[in-house]
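INTERNAL AUDIT FORM
Audit reference: QA-55
Scope: verify that the stored structure record matches its stored sequence.
Auditor: D.O.
Record contents follow.
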Amino acid sequence: MESFSLILAIVVVTALAFDFTNGFHDTANAMATTISTGALKPKVAVAMSAVLNLVGAFLSVEVANTISKGLVDETGIRPEVIFAALVGAILWNLLTWLVGLPSSSSHALMGGLIGAAVASAGIGAVNGDVLVTKVLLPAVAAPIVAGVAAMLATRMTYSLGRKADGRAAAKGYRAGQIASAGLVSLAHGTNDAQKTMGIITLALIAGGALAPDSDPPVWVILSAGLAIALGTYLGGWRIIRTMGKGLTDLQPQQGFAAQTSAATVILASSHLGFSLSTTHSVSGAVMGAGLGRKGGVVRWSTATRMFVAWGLTLPAAALVAALAEWVCRAGDWGTALVAVFLVASSYAIWRISRREVVDHTNVVDAQEPASAEPAGAAGPAGVVTTAMAAVSPPPAGVTEDLTATVPAPAAADPKAPSATTV
């Protein structure tokens, strides 16, 4: 019983650690566009997002029930299986954070749970209908729906605001961005914090601490909300940089349209119990907003890397979780070995990230320009740009302070031979 209690405690702590990584990995979903357009200062933005993540965790338990009651057969799941699933999800979150790719924490968790369950009890342990209808189909539909909605909203916003006073419109869009970012943060807490609630509830059921089909206890809801809020406050600055500037250059009108569209999709999915990826929804909305502005562009090289990461998330997390579950079968020493590997790998990734620090002081630095920037977009001046500026002629009409620097030719020497025309 003592050993069992220990493994259950390890699972709960590891689940909260995943929730923490989910928070800083997905901060960009709510606040990247708000920070990149200057609507809020970086630290203020992540603090606001953290508070609303915590509030959102108490709004619903539908997604938590999808995970704890629907995705896998809870009767054949041991706590060690859930621990292995969390190992796969955490490592994938940290790797994609290191390279600044906004992959889905939700799908990392789903992949880890599926991989560990299949390794432990076979393919029959996964409920295929739930996997398809509440995980895979929303994964494909969410970015498309959010992207189309954001593109149409952006075009409508520019059309309606064409005759508006510039200063008043800018102030209004700034307020709108802050409000819509808050809505995304609330939606993120409602959807993503519930995934950890579901995992902990599943572990408690597997360990006999809760009856089957139980809803998450209040302490589970509170601890999951606090963990994701703390991770959000620390800020996943690398992914914020990619989402805010790496995909496209957003103006306040676009940021408002993108965030409002994404929040609508996420809240609707949470109400229906879909284990939606907030990352997919927000990324799709950002790209749609980029295409919705005349002259706007999407950096497709960054988008392609992101799509590849999305496709690899489920299988990669599943593979790591399956290997971890295989090691955990050896007993307590196997579980301890997996735990040591997780801690050592996490520390190594953190040390590598210190070689190039990205934080609130440099998160809005200029990014590499897109292949076709909109008119008027300025990028960092490189060596060639600087050299060309040095030799460029002055603009037309600028004549003051222009003095000859080449000495006048000397008087012709009468004794010099005359030129010969050839």
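Auditor finding: record pair retrieved intact. The first helix runs from residue 2 to 36.
Action required: none
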